[in-house]
């Protein structure tokens, strides 16, 4: 046998051994060193002034939503970590407070038709459920961990407003922008009502139950058993087909008020949207799609139908479902698609292969998915 054939067979044998070995690897909760290094990076950028030199400000050039999401998902990840390990409360509480304070600045809220009256008036105008949902959920997280009343009045006011609007809309979903309704944005707002109920006993968590009942009848695609993405603002009919970037997002927040439904959605998401490829589990943006394009602001680039957000958000679903093998496969995919950078005791990642800078939002999203937990048990 020629030497090159021997080398080839040897390498093939080693590859098979490696492939078999990784099949037994599973997701494990991040250790304290990894959490601390990831938090060091997020802490630094959250405390940066919201000006052109700040990293969160700069990501706003891609999309104004990315600034809000950077703060919001940092707050959610911190809440996960502090609920899991109360020794992190001392670090988490002031940082969540800073995320809220930054989200209450004009640079953030002005993109959603919000003005200063939000904090000053007794009532809330018809502002975006996208913005109000994340702001309210962050305040609920702060209230849960801190016992401080700094944001209680605003948290109570927004909760009453959202609850009133849900009670009065015929199809249980509110607008993110004029005449535009996204189901994922509503799941965030609903999670904030559930958390307010847990914090205060307000009873608004019952709205979440009614939303689930309505969604199961009107917003589940029969073929895949998962949620549609958008709703027609005038008629309330399901509009855009299920999409991975939106479905995975919804699952993480539905988990906070109906864990069984969230896990059911994840299982269907995995069944109809994903494919097992050796060391990886790949999730598609749309079921049975093989599109290659630049995609849109929600999906990013599509490669044979697969998108970065569809896979990142699936990680959270796998974690909450106890699907530790799939969670590890997605982790491995993230590690393959991003290069690790450790500097000044900070840990962050940069996307390989394509020119796409979505940090610090991406770091907050991944840390939230890796640590996802239920904040309040029934």
From TrEMBL:
InterPro entries: Ldi (IPR041411)
Pfam families in UniProt: Ldi
Domain Linalool dehydratase/isomerase: 121-273
Protein name according to UniProt: Linalool dehydratase/isomerase domain-containing protein
Source organism of the structure: Dysgonomonas hofstadii
